[in-house]
């Protein structure tokens, strides 16, 4: 059966309390061949079945299946919160990256009761500073009150950064930005995933919408304002970007930017840039946070010279020069391929490159945005271990309201394969003319290692009414 069908079945088995399905769900969760969406469905199904059996099974998975420890903790959060907190701290203590830790933290932060339980378990424990710093940012971004943030800081040994500068220090910093700041280096710093800049802010048409668009910030804001905004985001919050915190009657907590306040429901854009719709009948309380949705301390990991470069880059945005968005219709929103499984690689090799467009393929696509110049840096794209191409794979989506032709300009064609719809194009030229029906169409670029030391790749819409969808 198709993965999406099995996924739905695992959820329904739990929702309908089908006890006879418990063993099957346990087998699905631990089987090596299970694809991630189905494995997560099995975890949710078992969580809904609940009981001591589910709690003990999740704890067993945590101890005997290292690859599934994150899912085990998520399951424990629903079936044994105290044990979940204990295992979560053990997991965080050994986590190497925030990508590992984020799902577990999200599980605890999406509940009104669990943050306090996790905070209590953290007392006297030690976790890596980088993990603690990112966790603090997650807590702050969601506007969560209580002891968890302090507990994370203590466990990770996170030192608070000064949130203000004296007038003399500010003047000196402004001068450093003007004389020593490097906007090119600053753009690379801005793009670092751990700073979350692109998650919340757009530059032009690409990026998050949780915070203000920065396309012209350098032309409208003085350097000292930029510095203060980075060090103390809550000092001055732009109108329309205050954080709303909703507590639901079932104990849930939802926070983010207000998108719409209707008669029947409130629509929030949460810190993960996802839309959340909450029926007004389910809201227990609502408040506006005095804190910015941009958490303090985001730049705490930067050296002073890196901070200076970042501010210099922001100060150039919108000014005449290379950091002003040009009128060219460059594609600025991409999906790039993450780490594929061996099974996925074999499937594409045997079926053909058009298999990359299969909706149920479970491919690990990751969102990326072009630089201000329109170029996608290829050092931000993983190489797939796919013989014989060993490619870097990037995908765009073109949306047309009516059938029409679209001409694309490619910055490079050497060792580049292009997949449109269900077919790989036979001839790749610097200008590609596509004849597309109405709708949204994926276009995938497979950049082989024979392309050489290609630093970046760009696509420009030269002709046609297509819009980039993401």
Structure in words:
- There is one protein chain.
- With 470 residues, this protein is an alpha+beta fold.
- It has four domains: 3-156, Leucine-rich Repeat Variant; 167-236 and 296-316, Orthogonal Bundle (Cytochrome Bc1 Complex, Chain D, domain 2), CATH 1.10.760; 242-292, SH3 type barrels (Roll), CATH 2.30.30; 333-468, Jelly Rolls (Sandwich).
- Helices cover 38% and strands 21% of the residues.
- The protein contains 17 helices and 19 strands.
- The strands form five sheets. Strands 8, 9, 11, 13, 14, 16 and 19 form a seven-stranded antiparallel β-sheet that branches.
- A hairpin with a 2-residue loop joins strand 1 (202-203) and strand 2 (206-207).
- Helix 3 packs parallel to helix 5 (69-79), helix 4 packs antiparallel against helix 5 (69-79) and helix 7 runs parallel beside helix 9.
Give a brief outline of the structure.
The protein is an alpha+beta fold and 470 residues long. It has helices at 3-15, 22-30, 36-49, 51-64, 69-79, 81-94, 98-109, 114-122, 129-141, 148-156, 167-180, 183-190, 197-200, 217-220, 223-231, 304-316, 342-351, and strands at 202-203, 206-207, 242-248, 253-261, 265-269, 275-279, 283-292, 333-337, 365-369, 376-377, 392-400, 404-410, 416-420, 423-424, 431-436, 439-447, 456-457, 459-463, 467-468.
């Amino acid at each position: 059966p198709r993965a999406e069908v099995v996924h739905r079945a695992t959820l329904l088995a739990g929702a309908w309390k089908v006890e006879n399905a418990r063993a099957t769900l346990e087998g699905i969760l631990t089987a090596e061949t299970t694809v991630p969406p189905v494995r997560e469905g099995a975890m949710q199904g078992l969580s809904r079945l609940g009981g001591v059996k589910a709690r003990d099974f999740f704890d067993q998975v945590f101890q005997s299946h290292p690859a599934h420890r994150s899912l085990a903790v998520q399951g424990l959060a629903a079936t044994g919160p105290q044990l979940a907190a204990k295992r979560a701290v053990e997991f965080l203590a050994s986590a190497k990256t925030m990508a590992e830790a984020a799902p577990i933290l999200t599980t605890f932060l999406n509940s009104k009761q669990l943050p306090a339980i996790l905070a209590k378990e953290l007392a006297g424990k030690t976790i890596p500073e980088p993990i603690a710093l990112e966790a603090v940012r997650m807590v702050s971004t969601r506007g969560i009150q209580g002891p968890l943030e302090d507990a994370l800081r203590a466990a990770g040994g996170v030192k608070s950064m000064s949130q203000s500068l004296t007038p003399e220090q500010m003047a000196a910093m402004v001068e450093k930005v003007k004389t020593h700041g490097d906007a090119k280096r600053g753009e690379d710093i801005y793009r670092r995933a751990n700073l979350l800049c692109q998650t919340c802010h757009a530059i032009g048409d690409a990026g998050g919408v949780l915070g203000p668009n920065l396309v012209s910030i350098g032309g409208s804001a003085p350097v000292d304002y930029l510095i203060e905004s980075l060090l103390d985001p809550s000092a001055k919050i732009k109108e329309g970007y205050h954080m709303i915190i909703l507590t639901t009657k079932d104990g849930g907590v939802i926070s983010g930017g207000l998108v719409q306040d209707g008669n029947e429901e409130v629509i929030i854009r949460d810190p993960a840039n996802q839309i959340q719709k909450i029926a007004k009948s389910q809201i227990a309380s609502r408040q506006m946070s005095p804190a910015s949705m941009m958490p303090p301390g985001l730049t705490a990991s930067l050296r002073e010279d890196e901070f200076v470069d970042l501010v210099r880059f922001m100060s150039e945005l919108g000014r005449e020069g290379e950091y002003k968005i040009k009128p060219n219709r460059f594609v600025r929103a991409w999906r790039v391929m993450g780490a594929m499984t061996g099974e996925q690689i074999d499937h594409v090799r045997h079926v053909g490159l058009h298999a990359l467009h299969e909706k149920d393929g479970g491919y690990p696509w990751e969102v990326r945005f072009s630089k201000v110049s329109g170029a996608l840096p290829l050092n931000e794209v993983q190489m797939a271990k796919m013989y014989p191409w060993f490619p870097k794979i990037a995908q765009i989506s073109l949306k047309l309201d009516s059938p029409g032709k679209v001409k694309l300009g490619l910055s490079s064609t050497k060792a580049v394969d292009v997949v449109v719809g269900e077919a790989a194009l036979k001839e790749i030229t610097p200008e590609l003319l596509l004849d597309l029906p109405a709708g949204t169409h994926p276009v995938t670029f497979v950049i082989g290692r024979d392309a050489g030391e290609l630093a970046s790749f760009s696509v420009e819409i030269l002709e046609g009414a297509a819009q980039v969808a993401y």
